[in-house]
Every structure is written in structure tokens, then in C-alpha cells.
Amino acid sequence: MNTIVFDVETKRSFQEAGTQRPGDLGISFVGAYETNTNKYYSFFEDEFDGLWKLLRKADRVVGFNSNHFDIPAIAAIAPFSLDNLLSLDIYEDVYRVVKQERISLNRLAIPTLKIRKSGHGLDAVKYYREGNLDKLRKYCLQDVKVTWELFKFGTEKQFVLLLEKSGMITQIPVNWSIN
């Protein structure tokens, strides 16, 4: 199964755009990892044709909060419908078990993998605005790496760890089979 792990960065925040629709924020960058090639990809606006080719090859996409943010953001500009795209949203899957709002990627990655994101989502908006595209790429691709490593761990071990707000660590069962 060709799985694409991805993350989307936007040009504006929800507050700046005055909306809660991800498709209204504008996409500045998309980072991706493809399991069939074991390769990371970078897509700025002028490179989105490559993104569309990659998504057309995908049997499944994996992201973090991707069903409510990344996919709607991409769907707003995609030259084809993403409605039939098989998606695994790690946030959504973990939320179904623990029923906690505001589970961050770091709250899973730090106890599970001992790695973390390199910053906050609003940093990406700042990097884009400043024209610091190298920092934008590095930030996003680190998120993709963390998401991929978390997905791989959960697929192999059938669980991930959650750092509770109390400081306790909880094991969360997952079923993210690659096949």
C-alpha cells in the first residue's frame, strides 16, 4: 500500500483570515513522505503539480488533524476531488479513544519517540511572511518526519503513548495496519 504522510502549512492564520475554513487560508508549503519510495518531498506553490501527481498515486494519506485541516486546505485548490482519498488522521484516531480535546503531536511524539516538532504552526505563517522558505521547509518536513515515525511506531507496536496534562503517560491502543 502506497501511503503518503503529509503536512500542510498556510499563508494566514484563522484569525488573520477571519474564518474557520482551512481552504480560505492559502497554502504556502506541503511536505510529504512516500512509503513506496522512502522519500521526503517538498512542495511550494509553484511545485503543486508534483503534489497532485503524488496524491494520485496514494492508496492512503496519513496526517495529524488532517481530516479537519490539511485535506480541506488542499481540497480548496486541488484540480481533482479528494473525496475518495483513504485517510488516516492520527489525531482523530487517538481522540476516539481518549476523548480529550487539544491533543498535540508533541504530546504523542515525545513519550512515544523521544522526538518533537521544531516549533508551532504559527511559526510557519511567520516564516512564509518573512520569505524564509528554508525555515518553512525544515519546519514542515520535521512535522512530516514526526508524523511518519509516530505512524510507523503505532503500526508496528499497535499502540502510542500520550503525555497527559498531569504528567502521567498513558498507552493508547491503535490499529494502523499498513496492509
Q: Mind explaining what this structure looks like?
A:
The structure is a single chain. It is globular, with a radius of gyration of 16 Å. It has one domain (3-173): Ribonuclease H-like superfamily/Ribonuclease H (Nucleotidyltransferase, domain 5), CATH 3.30.420. Helix 6 runs antiparallel to helix 7. The protein has helices at 14-17, 48-57, 66-75, 90-98, 105-113, 121-130, 133-157, and strands at 3-10, 27-34, 39-44, 60-63, 87-89, 159-163, 169-173. The protein has 179 residues and is α/β, with parallel strands linked by helices. The mean pLDDT is 93.
Question: What is the CATH superfamily?
Answer: Ribonuclease H-like superfamily/Ribonuclease H
The biggest sheet amounts to: 5 strands, mixed
Oligomerization category of the chains in this entry: single chain
* C-alpha end-to-end distance: 6 Å
Can you list the strand order of the major beta sheet? 3-2-1-4-5
Number of domains: 1
Name the shape in a single word: globular
> How helical, in percent, are the residues?
40-55%
Strand proportion, as a percent range, falls in 15-25%
Number of helices: 7
- Name the poorly predicted regions: none
Tell me the total number of β-strands: 7
Provide mean pLDDT, rounded. 93
